[in-house]
Amino acid sequence: MRIATWNINSIRARHDRVLAWLERSDVDVLAIQETKIDDARFPVESFERLGYRVAHHGTNQWNGVAIASRVGLDDVQVGVPDLPAFGEDPAVEARSLGALCGGVRVWSLYVPNGRAVDDPHYHYKLHWLAVLRDYAAKQLADEPHLPMLLCGDFNIAPTDDDIWSVEYYQGSTHVTGPERQAFANLTDAGFTDVVRPFHPGPGVYTYWDYTRLSFPKRRGMRIDFALASPALAARVTDAQIDREERKGKGSSDHAPVIVEFKDA
DNA sequence: ATGGTGGTTCGACCA
Predict the structure, then answer these.
(1) A236-249 pLDDT, tens per residue?
(2) For this UniProt entry, which segments traverse the membrane (predicted)?
(3) Over 80: is that where the pLDDT of A82 sits?
(4) Closest nucleotide to the alpha carbon of A62, via C1'
(5) Is the CB of A40 under 7 A from strand B?
(6) Is A253 annotated as a binding residue?
(7) Quick one: pLDDT band at residue A87, thresholds 50, 70, 90?
(8) Domains in chain A: ranges and CATH
(9) Which of A16, A149, A154, A256 has the fewest Cβ atoms nearer than 10 Å?
(10) CA A40 – CA A260 distance, rounded (Å)
C-alpha cells in the first residue's frame, strides 16, 4: 500500500495538477492539506472519477484538509478532539481529518504556522501540537498495535539538517526549541518519521519558498512528515519525496511525500 | 532546470 501526504496550496489553483499527479502516482491514499475551500465546493467528483473516495473538511478559503482513498474510507473523524480554537471570534480551524483506509488510521494534519516567535499564532501552534500529541499517545495506549499514520504539514524543521541555512532561519519560527520539542514529543510518543531512513540529510527538503529562486537554488526545508505508529512503522518498505512535482509553472510550494507499506 | 512568489472573498492578509 502506498500512502502520500501533500500540501497542495489550493485545490482550485492546483486541481489539474493534483489530479494528474494522483493518476500517475499509483498511491492508494492521499492526505491533502491546504485545500483552501469549503466542503460544498470541493471537487469530490474529480477524485471519484479516478476511483478514489474522498472526505474533505474545509470551512472557508483558509486551511482545509482532505483524504482521498481507493482502499476504503471509513470512520471519518472531523478534527482531533479538543484542539484549540483561534481568532477574535474563536473557531476551530479546519486542520485535521482522520479516516480508516485499508486498515490504517490516517490523519491529514495541517499544523498552524506560528508566524513569529511569541506571536499569538506561535502559542496556538504549540498548544495545538500538545493536544495532538496527547490524543495520539492515548490512541496508542488504548490500542498498542494500532496501525496509525500522522501525516501532513507540521510547519516544523526538526533538526538543522532539515533547513538549508541555520543563519537564514535564526530567530524565526519552524526551528525554535519549543517547536522542535513539540515534534520530539510526538516521536517520543511512538510515532516514527519513516521517510528519514530512506532519505538521510542534510539537503533533503519537502518545501521551497516561492520567492528568491529558492527551489532552483535548493534552499528548502523539510517540514512535511509521515509519522507511523510502531505496528505500521514495522511495515515500511520505501519512501519518496517527489521533488519533480515542485518543478514547473503552477506547482505547489510543497512536494508530495510517499510511503510504501507491505501488507500486515 | 529555472525564471525573480503565489494563494485567497480584488486587496489586504496569509504562507
Answers:
(1) 999 999 999 999 99
(2) none
(3) yes
(4) B8
(5) no
(6) yes
(7) confident
(8) 2-261 (3.60.10.10)
(9) A16
(10) 32
